[in-house]
Amino acid sequence: MTVRPAVEYFEIFDDRGHLCGRMARDEVHRSGWWHRSADVWLFRSDGALLLQQRARDKDLYAGRWDYSVGEHLLPGESFPMGAKRGLYEELGVCDVVLAAVGGLRRVVTEDARLGIRDRELARSFRVRCDEDLRPAASEVQQVQWVRPGSLHDWMRREPQAFTPWFIAAVAETGILDGLPSDSP
Questions:
Q1: What is the pLDDT of residues 123-158, one digit of tens each?
Q2: Which residues on neighbouring strands pair with residue 70, listed in sequence order?
């Protein structure tokens, strides 16, 4: 387990993806520097997807539904390392096999009301896991297993219930394509 410092620093990148240095998290999200993140889509063997409701004290989109795990990479971390660290820190899951989904995505979230210009270089991973989860209360308000068809319906009815990056990733990665909609 990694102990995070009081101020988180991210590696920052230019528009071509070249490393430019490090910057504090808050400044990165205000200034719009590219930084890296990994997201994990955790599926049970019956096809249900785990959604995470972000904790109420999160600085961005608190209380909204999101990936099973979304993790900013720490300096020097690879995408798989960050994904596995996030699985452990947020859900208590370890010893799983990550399957990459698609390639590197450029995820942009701008919200003048919140004062953010978030630009992430993101990689997605799919994981199959039937073990018991131990959600971390500091990160996760609650979790919920959802069938892909039900998730699509929910997203159409209440898009504001989800983080903007989650909605974009469902479309961009095709993560739910070809999955049985609601059958066990």
A1: 999 999 999 999 998 889 999 999 988 998 999 999
A2: 39
Question: Which CATH number do you get for residue 70?
Answer: 3.90.79.10
Tally of domains in the chain: 1
Q: Which domain covers residue 68, as residue numbers?
A: 9-173
Stretch (H or E) spanning 65: strand 65-66
Highest mean pLDDT: which range of 10-14, 91-95, 176-180: 10-14
Two tokens, residue 17: 């993806």
DSSP string, 96-140: ---EEEEEEEEEEEEETTTTEEEEEEEEEEEEE--SPP---TTTE
Alpha helices in the chain (DSSP H): 25-31, 79-91, 148-157, 164-173
Query: Is the pTM of the predicted complex or chain greater than 0.70?
Result: yes
1 within a domain of the structure (yes/no)? no
